[in-house]
């Protein structure tokens, strides 16, 4: 897993880059058939999609999630299992157990570590966890730390990607990028923004490029965008944005990694 990447970008520099979409977790496949089916459409510039069965893998394999994950895998879409770190309060063994269930049941390609700590003091434990998760997938895991803000810089070397913004358009359009992000290429950073009006979609994409984010998810839906409930709902991100086709056409065509 290439955690250490040669610097290739400068914060604040507008440049052409291969931008793609990361889906932080649609509603349960039984309730969002259209959303999950859309992710397998050829040419969609999709970097990954998060599978959240019931605030994690659940207690037993879910047939609807098995089907959805299988279709994504067949379409060569990277599937990430949702692991809740509860800002560092969950037990290490409990998280690793969830990871094993995700792998055994849904054959995931990596993990999305939601509510990840941001402070320097928590970094050693997070690094211990990410090293273990990488071992669970024999060194091929794609790991995303979802913090929603800029963490202590050392976290950039603990995973493949960091979610450095997750929130509302009203905040995003005035946000600033941390200077240390200039040391990493755009593929290191993820921005998730809700409440983006269709008329401001171009502006949102310019901000993402300006701030050096290579993976995005923009939606016109509003509401809570954070921790998912037991049915896999993630508020504003649980359904397709109304301008999904526009996003695909503006940053595609692409091939899922």
Describe it.
- This protein is of the alpha/beta class.
- The protein has 7 helices and 8 strands, in the order E-H-E-H-E-H-E-H-E-E-H-E-H-E-H.
- The chain has an 8-stranded parallel barrel with strand order 1-2-3-4-5-6-7-8, surrounded by 4 helices.
- Helix 5 links the parallel strand 6 (161-168) and strand 7 (189-194).
- The longest helix is centred in the middle third of the chain and has 15 residues, at 92-106.
Question: What's this model, at a glance?
Answer:
Helix content is 27%, strand content 17%. It is an alpha/beta fold. The two termini are 14 Å apart.
Provide the descriptors you would attach to this structure in a database record.
single chain; 257 residues; alpha/beta; eight-stranded parallel beta barrel; 7 helices; 8 strands; 27% helix
Describe the protein's topology:
Blueprint: E1 20-23, H1 33-38, E2 46-51, H2 63-74, E3 79-84, H3 92-106, E4 110-114, H4 123-136, E5 142-146, E6 161-168, H5 169-172, E7 189-194, H6 201-210, E8 215-218, H7 244-251
Parallel strand pairs: 1-2, 1-8, 2-3, 3-4, 4-5, 5-6, 6-7, 7-8
Overall structural class, as computed from helix and strand content, comes to: alpha/beta
> Whole-number radius of gyration?
17 Å
Residue share in β-strands:
15-25%
The tally of strands reads 8
- Quickly count the helices: 7
- Biggest beta sheet summary: 8 strands, parallel, barrel
Binned, the helix content reads 25-40%
End-to-end Cα distance, whole Å, is 14 Å
Unreliable spans are: 1-17, 227-234
Give the SSE string.
EHEHEHEHEEHEHEH
Q: Spatial order of the strands in the main sheet? A: 1-2-3-4-5-6-7-8
Q: Give the overall average pLDDT.
A: 88
- The geometry reads as globular
């Amino acid at each position: 897993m290439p955690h250490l990447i040669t610097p290739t970008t400068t914060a604040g520099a507008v440049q052409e880059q291969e931008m793609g979409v990361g889906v932080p977790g649609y509603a349960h496949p039984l309730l969002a058939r259209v959303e999950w089916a859309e992710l397998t459409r050829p040419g969609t510039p999709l970097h990954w999609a998060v599978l959240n069965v019931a605030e994690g893998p659940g207690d037993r394999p879910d047939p609807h999630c098995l089907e959805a994950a299988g279709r994504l895998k067949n379409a060569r879409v990277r599937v990430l299992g949702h692991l809740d770190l509860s800002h560092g309060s969950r037990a290490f063994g409990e998280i690793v157990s969830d990871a094993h269930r995700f792998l055994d049941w849904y054959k995931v390609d990596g993990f999305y570590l939601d509510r990840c700590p941001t402070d320097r003091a928590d970094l050693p434990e997070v690094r211990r966890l990410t090293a273990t998760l990488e071992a669970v997938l024999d060194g091929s895991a794609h790991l995303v730390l979802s913090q929603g803000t800029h963490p202590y810089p050392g976290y950039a070397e603990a995973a493949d990607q960091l979610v450095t913004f997750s929130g509302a358009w009203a905040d995003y359009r005035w946000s600033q990028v941390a200077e240390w992000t200039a040391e990493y290429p755009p593929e290191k950073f993820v921005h998730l923004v809700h409440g983006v009006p269709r008329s401001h979609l171009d502006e949102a994409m310019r901000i993402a490029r300006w701030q050096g984010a290579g993976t995005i998810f923009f939606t016109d839906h509003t509401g809570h965008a954070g921790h998912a409930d037991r049915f896999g709902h993630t508020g504003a991100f649980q359904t397709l944005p109304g301008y999904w086709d526009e996003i695909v056409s503006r940053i595609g065509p692409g091939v899922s990694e």
